[in-house]
Amino acid sequence: MTTKIHLLCDALGCPLRFLLTGGEVHDVTQAEALLEDQSGRYVIADKGYDSSALVEQINGKDMVAVIPPRSNRKTPRAYDKHLYKERNVIERTFNKLKNLRRIATRFERTKINFMALLHVASIMLWLR
Q1: What is the pLDDT of residues 11-65, one digit of tens each?
Q2: Architecture of the 3-126 domain
Q3: What is the residue-averaged pLDDT of the chain?
Q4: Nearest one of 31, 84, 82 to 55, comparing CA atoms
Q5: Would you place residue 1 in the very low, low, confident or very high pLDDT band (cuts 50, 70, 90)?
Q6: In angstroms, rounded to a whole number, what is the distance separating the alpha carbons of residues 24 and 42?
Q7: How far apart are alpha carbons 77 and 53 in whole angstroms?
Q8: How far is 64 from 60, CA to CA, in rounded Å?
Q9: Which helix (H) or strand (E) holds 15?
Q10: Are strands 42-44 and 64-66 parallel, antiparallel or unpaired?
Q11: Which residues pair with 43 in a beta bridge?
Q12: Going by DSSP bridges, is the β-strand pair 15-22/3-9 parallel, antiparallel, or unpaired?
């Protein structure tokens, strides 16, 4: 019934990779596929991506995970709170994408058509 957009963007808010799943799929399950073949210095994500396996994968790629620990973690990890404030870049990117009515309401019936529309919208963001 619902669709969840998993998005990877750069520091300027330009979309790099999209994944579509059902609305019931948890965010952290798609993180490995989003980060595949990517390089950078930091990976900034919200608490939904707090997983020991994901943090190890990020550290294995010589990147720093800036992910706050969930409140139920027995041993909370340290993270850079100042750098975490930059997470608003991805939120603004989602806002720009969802300003397009066809994306916000998902008029497209098939996954391939919706992905095509996401790519067209991301091209518009890249051209700004």
Answers
A1: 999 999 999 999 899 989 999 999 999 989 999 999 989 999 999 999 999 999 9
A2: 2-Layer Sandwich (3.30)
A3: 92
A4: 31
A5: low
A6: 27
A7: 13
A8: 9
A9: strand 15-22
A10: parallel
A11: 65
A12: antiparallel
